[in-house]
Write a structure and sequence with these properties.
The complex is a heterodimer of chains A (277) and B (442). Chain A has 13 helices and two strands. Chain A is mainly α and 277 residues long. The chains are: A mainly alpha (277), B alpha/beta (442).
Chain lengths: 277, 442
């Protein structure tokens, strides 16, 4: 009986994982190899020759390479800043966390209104201080950067909380000891804080990478993958294939490739970060 | 004791999961049984557009009054989502719906994908004669009548009288023989914009298209110059949508937003109308619905026939919403009864009146031209519309791949609005459409 209990307790969550994660993944993998009911590699061979797929792939890579380091660095800085014993610091923590509780749909729409090139408040502000008006989401050079900014505004507070929890987990005795030994702020940060933050950081880096590679809503709400396909990432291309082009095979194949891509990236991160548990 | 409690809890949780599934199954079974009983109330599920809900509800009420045994339930979706829900639901063989809205260019695709039940078994040839031939043909594919039209549509050039007055610009004529060319309209729009918003601080624009970036509206530009939307075979796009006519038409579209700077960038089709009703747009190319809505907004407005290119001919957008029976409907008879009421019967008059739409019923169209009250503002707009529907309307392209065509073209129009070179953008569109069409040739 004693041996059985833990497994019984696991059943509900395993059941949910199987239904909502494993089953769709299998469905996707199988579907990606099916063309008109028979096994085939056609979905992949068509895809790999398709310039639209490769441009979407590049957009996804470009987006991830910029957004993940930016978000983690800013989250780290914020976490350090709010990790001080200051009267009323909770207010700041709350303010930085606020964007997280706004739905990404609503956040995208709000930013869309503010970034509107002809009637948006941001351009009015730029004009008032003498900077020329910007096209923002309507320019292929700025749209991806705008989405990076929106995603970061929305995400940083969330990741900050994990890092903050990690920081507060570090025993203050260690800092006191290093202080007595005469360690500088830089030494304390790089040799004590960051290594001891390892666990929190690994989680933040991995989870952040996945979420950003799969980011979809701002492209869906604001740019439709445009201008000139500059925000047409793989996730959005998969969505278009399935629901607008009604080509499920293509969509399955894109998602399968995305899955493999994420696994490779995460595997590399784990190895690089010397995960010891 | 603890162990037992934990075990009980775990078992209860697991059981509740299965219990949940079980009870759901039970209810569905009983549901199908009850629908089979002949004397019981039949319920029809109707997948429709959220913006039309208020105009369809009175139709449903009137129908239920006549047919107390048939209950029609509306399930409404926003414009963009409706098409996706249709693909997901119908593509997965759903039995949840009996009736669905069909955007007319999608009739071919839905028929080929086997989403719809042909209406010929339920609607007689005589009954079909109540509909104008162009709408009837648009709702048919390969000789079968698949979806019956609720209405059709056409576009006019609306303008803000106060703004034109302030700029000293003469109101354009309502006479279809004196319609403006795009070449004449652009400088007028520039002048009005400049007079009303000299430094650009009020956010006023000279010229906008209501259904911005939607082929429904934009196709009329290349069509006016003689450009076709798709090849004879229903698939060819190279040399068709990047032809010199298309490039010239799209150059105008480009100029409106980038050279003359008289149109808004970054505003979606769902929002454009409201900018006109709130006095931020001087000229708006829009459907007859803008008559009702401008009156409601207490706007001092006027209208003129749809413009055309100097070297081309007058062409106007057309086509609108049709209603079809889903292939899995358990009550096709009752669904057909509702379709007749809504597209041919008294229900259609209620809808048209309430929504300010343009009818596809022969009788209703005749009434528009003969009715004396339609000689005056604002109803005279419908007389212009009736002329356009009969003489200048060009439907959207007929192809099984309309959904793909529309998606790629919509993004292409948006890129051109944002400053992409028209020829480059159209060439890229050809490439993308060919990729998307590859599956039909597999």
């Amino acid at each position: 009986m004693r041996k059985l209990t833990p497994y019984l307790l696991l059943i509900p969550s395993v059941f949910l994982i199987v239904v909502f994660k494993i089953y769709p993944i299998l469905l996707t993998l199988i579907g990606s190899f099916l063309v008109k009911g028979s096994l085939s590699l056609a979905n992949y061979s068509v895809l790999l020759k398709d310039p639209v797929f490769w441009s979407s792939f590049l957009v996804t890579v470009k987006f991830s390479i910029i957004v993940t380091p930016v978000q983690i660095l800013l989250a780290l800085i914020l976490a350090f800043l709010v990790n001080t014993k200051l009267k009323g610091i909770e207010i700041f923590r709350t303010i930085y966390y606020l964007p997280v509780v706004v739905s990404i749909m609503v956040a995208s729409m709000l930013w869309g209104i503010m970034l509107n090139p002809s009637s948006g408040v941001i351009n009015s502000f730029l004009k008032a201080i003498g900077i020329p008006q910007q096209p923002f989401l309507t320019s292929s050079k700025q749209a991806l950067m705008c989405i990076i900014a929106i995603a970061s505004w929305k995400g940083i507070g969330y990741w900050m909380m994990f890092i903050l929890a990690g920081l507060q987990n570090i025993n203050t005795d260690i800092y006191e000891a290093s202080y007595i030994d005469g360690a500088s702020w830089w030494d304390t940060t790089t040799k004590i804080t960051i290594p001891l933050l390892n666990r929190a950081l690994i989680f933040v880096i991995v989870a952040n990478t996945i979420i950003n590679i799969l980011l979809f809503v701002p492209m869906f709400v604001l740019t439709n993958g445009g201008p000139k396909m500059s925000t047409n990432g793989l996730m959005f291309e998969a969505y278009k294939s399935a629901f607008l082009y009604v080509d499920m095979g293509r969509s399955y194949a894109i998602v399968a490739i995305l899955l493999v891509f994420i696994s490779i990236v995460i595997g590399a991160q784990m190895k690089f970060l010397k995960n010891d548990y | 004791m603890k162990k037992v409690a934990a075990l009980a809890l775990a078992t209860a949780m697991v059981m509740s999961l299965f219990a949940g599934c079980g009870s759901k199954q039970a209810s569905t079974t009983s549901g199908t049984e009850s629908t089979k009983a002949p004397d019981q109330k039949v319920s029809l599920n109707f997948m429709t557009l959220s913006t039309h809900a208020d105009s369809i509800k009175p139709v449903v009420d009137a129908f239920t009054k006549e047919n107390p045994n048939i209950n029609v339930k509306l399930e409404t979706y926003p414009f963009d989502q409706l098409f996706q829900v249709i693909e997901v639901k119908m593509g997965s063989n759903s039995k949840d719906y009996d009736l669905m809205y069909v955007d007319v260019p999608k009739v071919a695709a839905y028929t080929e994908r086997n989403y719809l039940l042909p209406l010929d078994n339920y609607i007689s040839a005589d009954e079909k004669k109540q509909i104008i031939p162009s709408a009837l043909e648009a709702g048919s594919w390969k000789g079968k009548f698949m979806a019956s039209p609720m209405n059709t549509s056409t576009q006019l050039l609306f303008y803000n009288k106060d703004m034109l007055k302030a700029a000293g610009v003469e109101f354009p004529s309502e006479d279809v023989n004196k319609r403006l060319t795009w070449e004449e309209l652009a400088p007028l729009a520039q002048k009005v914009q400049k007079a009303n918003d000299p430094d650009g601080s009020k956010g006023i624009m000279g010229l906008m298209f209501d259904q911005i970036n939607r082929p429904y509206q934009v196709d009329a530009l290349p069509n006016s110059l003689g450009g076709k939307c798709i090849g004879e075979d229903g698939y060819k796009v190279d040399g068709v949508i990047n032809s010199p006519e298309w490039v010239k038409a799209m150059k105008f579209y480009y100029d409106v937003f980038n050279t003359y700077k008289i149109g808004f960038k970054g505003i979606a089709a769902t929002d454009v109308q409201n900018y006109f009703y709130s006095g931020k747009i001087a000229f708006l190319v829009s459907g007859t619905w803008s008559v009702t809505k401008s009156v409601a907004a207490k706007l001092n407005f006027g209208y003129a026939p749809h413009p055309y290119f100097k070297d081309g001919k007058a062409v106007t957008p057309t086509g609108s919403w049709h209603v079809g029976i889903t292939k899995n409907s358990a009550h096709p008879e009752e669904a057909a009864k509702f379709i007749k009421f809504m597209t041919m019967g008294a229900g259609n008059d209620i809808y048209i009146e309430k929504h300010g739409d343009f009818p596809s019923k022969v009788a209703a169209l005749d009434k528009i031209t003969s009715d004396a009250k339609n000689k005056e503002f604002p109803n005279s707009a419908f007389v212009i519309a009736a002329y356009e529907a009969k003489n200048t309307a060009v439907p959207r392209p007929t192809t099984v791949g309309y959904s793909e065509w529309e998606t790629v073209m919509g993004n292409t129009f948006e890129d051109i609005r944002n400053g992409e070179d028209p020829k480059t953008a159209l060439d890229k569109a050809v490439e993308q459409i060919n990729t998307a069409f590859a599956k039909y040739k597999k």
